[in-house]
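Data card: per-record layout.
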Amino acid sequence: MLRITIHDSSRELRMKLEGKLSGPWVEELRQCWRTASSTTAGRATSLDLSEVDFVDSGGQALLAEMYRQGVRFEAATPLIQVLVDEGVGCPACATVEEKPAGKPHGSLCRSKPGKR
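The structure for this 116-residue chain is written out next.
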């Protein structure tokens, strides 16, 4: 199961994922992203992966597509960092920080597509 929460502000579209990015949830995220991004009009888009505990190959492919379209990632675990890095072919596109338990926090990807 995957929970997708969309935070839409005047400066940024931010989507937070919680759970597993796999199976039918990959297509659900794709549809949410495409629908929401149709209204961004030049605003930044970021994807918070700090509460994701599994990504399958379809999820990796979607992350790669999102990255190529300029979506920035936030990740909080070494596992998710590796999956993001492998999926988008960009080492350190999602960064991991040590954090106190129970307080999700990460760093946004500073790389831009084409500047790997």
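Known properties of this structure: The chain has a mean pLDDT of 78. Helices lie at 24-37, 57-68, 78-88.

See the next section for split statistics.
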